[in-house]
């Protein structure tokens, strides 16, 4: 069976080379691009494999790259890499058609799992995914206040901003956040947001 192709768009040479090494040793065929413009110029139609792109890049950033790819009718799955605190950008990327996002720095397995999921034949049926359905059932067990905190976390608000909006202290927000993460079994706030976006709650 031919190796799946991953098109990596990353302006940091060290990270680009590191990602290429990891993916090639994991059995993927890798194509490297320094900028979104370079990818758009070189990507064949129809493109094979999937795209792994940073969201913050000079020139065409990840969001603009997504827009142009969809405008050009590219159906290739796209996984975006985000920096810490880029939750609103990640949510926007998924609304524009990215199939997943991962936060830097990430472990090798987190990246490989995201890419394999993106490349899996059943990827299009995300709403029917048992993991997504399980998350939705868990969200239904949240109290009204916990759901309010979840909605604002997904929107990218900080604990201070959530506290101000709900008329509670940031410390109380942290308590609600810990409770809703336990109920939804999310490993981190980023994981919680990712699941919420995949489930269509953003």
From TrEMBL:
<dbReference type="GO" id="GO:0000160">
    <property type="term" value="P:phosphorelay signal transduction system"/>
</dbReference>
<dbReference type="InterPro" id="IPR001789">
    <property type="entry name" value="Sig_transdc_resp-reg_receiver"/>
</dbReference>
<dbReference type="InterPro" id="IPR011006">
    <property type="entry name" value="CheY-like_superfamily"/>
</dbReference>
<protein>
    <submittedName>
        <fullName>Response regulator FixJ</fullName>
    </submittedName>
</protein>
<feature type="domain" description="HTH luxR-type">
    <location>
        <begin position="135"/>
        <end position="200"/>
    </location>
</feature>
<keyword id="KW-0238">DNA-binding</keyword>
<keyword id="KW-0805">Transcription regulation</keyword>
<dbReference type="Pfam" id="PF00072">
    <property type="entry name" value="Response_reg"/>
</dbReference>
<feature type="modified residue" description="4-aspartylphosphate">
    <location>
        <position position="54"/>
    </location>
</feature>
<dbReference type="GO" id="GO:0003677">
    <property type="term" value="F:DNA binding"/>
</dbReference>
<feature type="domain" description="Response regulatory">
    <location>
        <begin position="5"/>
        <end position="119"/>
    </location>
</feature>
<keyword id="KW-0902">Two-component regulatory system</keyword>
<keyword id="KW-0597">Phosphoprotein</keyword>
<dbReference type="InterPro" id="IPR000792">
    <property type="entry name" value="Tscrpt_reg_LuxR_C"/>
</dbReference>
<dbReference type="GO" id="GO:0006355">
    <property type="term" value="P:regulation of DNA-templated transcription"/>
</dbReference>
<dbReference type="InterPro" id="IPR036388">
    <property type="entry name" value="WH-like_DNA-bd_sf"/>
</dbReference>
<keyword id="KW-0804">Transcription</keyword>
<dbReference type="InterPro" id="IPR016032">
    <property type="entry name" value="Sig_transdc_resp-reg_C-effctor"/>
</dbReference>
<dbReference type="Pfam" id="PF00196">
    <property type="entry name" value="GerE"/>
</dbReference>
